[in-house]
Each structure stands twice: as structure tokens, then as C-alpha cells.
Write a structure and sequence with these properties.
By secondary structure, this protein is mainly α. The chain has 25 helices and five strands. It is rod-shaped and about 200 Å long. InterPro entries: HATPase_C_sf, Sensor_HK_TwoCompSys, Sig_transdc_His_kin_sub3_dim/P, TPR-like_helical_dom_sf.
Length: 683
Amino acid sequence: MNKLYLYALKTPNMHFTGKLFNFLFLALITTLVIGCQQNKSTHQLDLDFLFKIKLSDPQQDSIAKNVEHLTQRALTSKNTLKDRELIDSVLDQLRWTDAKEFVTLAHIAKKDAIKSKDQNRLASIYNDLAVYYQDKGLYDSVYYYHLQSENIYKKLQDNYAIAENNFYQGILFYELGLQIESEVKIAKALKLLEKKPNNPVYMLALQTMAYHYTDQNNLDKAEQYLDRAFQVYQRIKDNPKLIAQNRKYLFLGNLYANYSMISYFREDYNKAEIFAQKGIEEIQKNFNPFIFSFVNMDYQLALYKQGNNPNIIEGLMISYKIHDKLDYDFYKADLSIAIAQIYQEENQSENAIKWAKKSYDIAKKANLNLQQKQAIEFLLLQDSSSKNYHLIEELIQLNKVLHQREKQTQEKFTKIEYETLYIVNENKSLRFKITVIITVSIVVFLSLIFLFFYTRTKAKNIALKNLAIKKSIDEKILNLLFLNNKLQQSSINSERNRIANDLHDGVINSIFTLRFNLQQLQSDNQQLQDSLVGELQRLEAKIREISHELANSSAFNKNSFEELITQLVKQQKNPYNTKFTLTIESDVCMESLSVEEKINLYYILNEILDNVNKHSQAINCLVNFYIIDNQLILTVTDDGIGMDKEQSREQTLKHIKDRANIIQAKLNIESNNPVGTKITLEI
């Protein structure tokens, strides 16, 4: 049994149940929180969606009709991502109705949010679904979608949104009578908002915690929480981003109503009257009949307890008629039992029983088990005779039903939370595994890349080192070739000088002596003598000319790559007496070649000539150097027996091809047995 109701039974003048007191807060915040927003989160504060009283069928039809054309536009949209604002706006309206289009649009919006990875929008859609199923009384679905949105906010690390979500869950538990679960959720919300206390969520959570302490009859603690809520209100009341200015009067009226209730429980009825009157004054600034009905009840009861309200029933009927017009069975049942208590205090048993039965009928028809139970308890207290035995049985059955329902609700919510958290943990585990796999793959991939480049760089360095060594060796070989050529040329020059000296010093002197002696001879044939002397003079001059040319000729003073080529061709000999002919055109400059090109060209020509000597059986071999398009062309042509393709490709010319590749020269081989062979090298 509700603690507040027990208190009412102990105090004859207590006229309303604790559950009515509890839902006063829920009803008030339904209207008050519209228009409030977060400071930094991207989603709007929407505290009314869990606690808005179920609308009547005409009201729901009216809302659906007002957005009917927008609903059709949203349903027929060809680009739902582009029209997301339209769809979300329609969902915000249809969530309060029974329109089947809501579920279809919610499915479309959810699919788009997941596709576009819009987590805030997805959480908002879950909140709309919670509203929709709240109106249907499907509280397990409401709780499921709360958990879904909470998990998204946790992923986004949006503490404000998490706190708001926990507040929703706390109020849901409170409405279902799960006091402990509700208090835990509200405490979590307050904890998350300690560092950001200037917002309406924090204020309403403080008020909710005050209700918990009121249920525990800890009125001092309850008042402390109301004081803290009032301080928050004072800080945010002038900030339109936190509380809509046309709603702040309802916030303040709500706070005064709460203070009135605390004072009433303390039996300080004068203070309760003052607070209730202040609440009415604030509500009148932005009148709302639904909220006024509750504050009016506080005011009427406070006056009644002071003996200043003989028309208490008429005063309470003002509130009852408002609920009856709005077709709110829950509040009608609670207020009916409160009126019954007033009649009972006034010793009007017949009217008391009449209103208690009215409360019983309303509660039974609307399946409000708690109000039905309270009505039965009141009736039994009025008359516990055996004729009411069926009520006793019904009360026992209701207690079992309520107990079983509470247990089932707890088990169902626990299962939903477990399954939701299990899925979340599974997803986290899967994401962790995927992350590990991706990380390991990236590490392995980067390692392979590093190993590849390291190996490649190392091989390249080795190749460069080998190339440097080869270049050094080639330079040494070329230097040796030049040195050898120089030594040979020096020897030739030395021998030529020796011959020139011998001719000059020996032969010329001898001829000179012979000529001189011949001139001294007396001969009868003077003409013959003169002729011989003249011939000796010409011979002396010719030998002297040859001697000078041998000693001074510049034709043999060169020490060039061209000389090496010339000597290489001239020194070729083979058993077939092949005639080797070298032609170097005048525009060919051998010295423009690099050291590497000279060395490889020398060895290529040497290899070609060696093959001619060994295999061609040629009579003639022509070696030509000429220039075409700034390229040096070497052709070696013989009239021998040629070579077969296999020999050309695999054996004989392998070294030639390798060296041609080194200097990036183009090699072409034309060989048709027995026509001969022509090898062309383009550098």
C-alpha cells in the first residue's frame, strides 16, 4: 500500500492518495518542459514525451489530420535523406497518435540514420518510438528504446543526453511503482549533471528525488531537494535557451505546488495555503487548466484543514470536472477517492461510499489496479460485513495481481536490459576483435612494406656498391688499355726514332760519302757520272725526309680511344685470312663517350670480331662507325656462313647482349645462313 495513502488513513482529514500527489509532478512537467534545450548537445530537450497524458481519440485524430498532407509527402519522398527534416517533423507530431504511418516513417528514418551514420538522429528516432509505445501502454518497448538511445549517447560520450535519458527511465519506473529502480536512475542523472547544474533536467530530477523522499516520509530531505530545484530555477528562468519564457510561470507554479504539499504533510496548513496561492498566481500568467486543477486542489485542501473552506466539495469538483472533460480516468479515479474521504470526514457515509464506488468503477473499467485496490480498501473500512465478502476476495486477488505485475515488470525490464547490454557487449567485443585484426593487419602490412623497401634498398645499395666497384675496375682496365697503348706507341715511336737516327746518321752519311767520292772520280763518261751523283742526291734527300717524318710525325703522337679501336681491328687474324676493314667517319667523336660506354663498346667489338674469327669463315669483315640523329652507330658485317638462331640467342651473343644492356644500347642481329651476318649497335 502506498505510504501516502497509509498516512491519509491514519489522518482522518487527509483526503487524497499519495499516487495522486506523485502524478501531480508528472502532469506538471508534461506541459512545462516543452521548448527547453540543451546547452551543448545537438538534440532538443524533450522531457514531455514519457509523461504526456494519453490523448483522447478526437485529439489524436485532430493531430493526424493536421499533418496528413505532410505525412503523404514524407511517405512518397524519393529522396528520404534530403527530406529528413520533413520526416522528422512528421514523426514528432504522429508519435502522439495511433497513426500506422508513424511506424512506417520511423522505419524509413531509422534506416536512413543508420546509413548516414547519424547517431544523434537515430537516438531521437528511438525517443519518438518510446513516446509512441508509451501511449499504447507497452512499457517494455518504451524501456527497450530508452536503452537503445542511452547506448548511443554513451558511445557519443554525451553526458547531458545520458542524464536526460536516465531521468526518463527514472520517471518510467516511478510511474510503474518501481521505487528503488526509479531512485537509482534519478541519482545517476543528478550525478552526471553535478558539473552542469544550470539546466531544466537537473531541476526536474531534483524535484523527482524530492518525491522519493516524500514517499519515505523524509520531509526535511524532500524540502532540501526542492530548495535546490528552486535555486536552479532562479538561475535559468531568464535564459530562453534553457526554458521557454512563456513556460517559466508554469515551472514556478509547479515548485510552489510542491512546497504546498510538503507544508501540508507537516500540517502547516497556513503555509501550504500561501504556497498554493502563489502557485495559482504564477499559473494564471500562462493559464493551463490541467495544471490548475492540481494546484487548485492543494489550495482547497489547505483552506479546508484550517476550517476556512465549507465549500470544499464544490472546490474539488472544479478540478474533477477538468479531468472529466479531458477524459483522464486515472486522475478522475484518484480525485473521486479524495472526495470520498472528505465526505467520510464530514460523516456523510452515503456520499463517501457513493464516490468510493465511483472511483472503483472508473478504475476497474480503465484497468487501474492500484486505484481499484485503494477504492476497495476504503469501502471495506466503511463496511467490513460479510456482504462485502466478494470485495475482500477481489482485494486479495488485486494484491496478488499487483505483486505479480510488479515482479513481471521487474523481470521483463531486467531481461530487456540484460539482452540490450549483451548485444552492446557483443558489438563491443566484435568491434574490439575487428580492431585487433585491422591493427595486426596494418602492422603486418607495414612490416612487409618496410621489409620490402629495406630489402630493395639494401639490394640497391649492394648493386650501387657493385656498380661502383665495376666502374672502378672498368676505369682501371681502360687505364691499363691506354697505358698498354701508350707503351706500345712509345715503343713504336722509339723504334721509329732509332730507325730515323740510323737512316740519318748511317745511311745518309754513307750516301753522302759515296756521292762525294763519286764526284772526285775522273770518268770519261761525265754525263753518267753526273746522273749517278744526281740520283744519289735525290736518294739522300728522300731518306732525310723519311727520317724527319719518322722522328716528327704527329700521326702517331695521339693516345685516344679511336687508336685502341683501330689497333683492335688491325690486329685481327684467323685461319681464313679474313680481311678486316675499319671505317670511322669524320663526324664521329669517340672521346664524347663515357668511360663505361668506352669499355663496354670495346669489349662488344672485341667479342664480335672474336666470333668472326672463330665461326664466320668470312673473306671480308667491315667495321663501320658513323652518326645518325646524334646517335653513334657501329655495324660489323661479314660475308661468312652466318649463324643459326639458337646459337645467336643463347650462346655466342650472350655477353654482347649483356654489355649492350648495361650501356642501354640497341642491339640488332641479322644472320641468314649462308649469306653472312650483320650486327648493328646504336648508342
